[in-house]
Amino acid sequence: MKDKYKMSIEENIFIAKRMLVDVVYKSANLEGIAVTFAQTIDILNDINVENVKPSEIGKVCCLRDAWQYIIDNINENLDLAFLENLHYFVTKTELEYKYVGTIRTNDVLISGTSWRPEIPNPDKLHFELINLLNLENNTDRALSIMLWIMRKQIFKDGNKRVATLIANKILIENGCGILSIPVKHDGKFKSMLIKYYETNEITEIKNWIYDNCIDGINE
Predict the structure, then answer these.
(1) Spatial contact of 171 and 155, defined as CB atoms under 8 Å apart
(2) pLDDT (tens digit, 9 = 90+) per residue, 112-131?
């Protein structure tokens, strides 16, 4: 796998800020929050939006805040503490406080499959993350860590959101573009994700994300 895009970190941050509404809109829809692009603009501008639940507005605003955290801390080291901090911003309005920014300690169910991830062991997560961070190619590293977070289900909820944000941190800090799942591909992505959960075969879904979900420019 090679990087699709190569630009300066400054240019990539500029693109990320410019694409913020678009990526938040796509992330929200991936989580089943059926907001339109126009509604997303209004929510992010603190304009009252009819026919959108307050809880869903809160989730959209959390995505905005989490993106700001990524941009503000783009050069920070990626470790479990960073994941926990990011999870706080993603889920601060929807989970009980004891679950926010905390690695889960009990089982979770995953919609669409009977497969269950093991309860995370922080020491094991630490060493697995270090190994993934040693992957040479930037884009491969971003996608591999994203899918690892999703399959491990490190947190009680919000894992896909945290994972895609972390992938974007890695891409942006290396000038490799922006990742988001197009709304038209939600079904395809979720189907492939379930297959990946059940088999741990990563190549197919990683290549599909590479082909369909990364955008940017080459300077």
Answers:
(1) no
(2) 899 999 999 999 999 999 99
d(CA 92, CA 95): 6
* Residue linked to tokens 């971003």: 142
Structure tokens at 154: 């490190």
Q: What is the percent of the chain with per-residue pLDDT over 70, rounded to a whole number?
A: 100
What average pLDDT is seen over the chain?
94
List of domains in the chain: 9-105+116-214 (1.10.3290.10)
- Tell me the residue ranges of DSSP E strands in 70-195: 178-179
* pTM (two decimals): 0.94
Phi, psi of 2, deg, nearest 5: -120, 160
CA dist 132 and 114 (Å) reads 27
Q: How far apart are CA 148 and CA 107, in angstroms?
A: 17
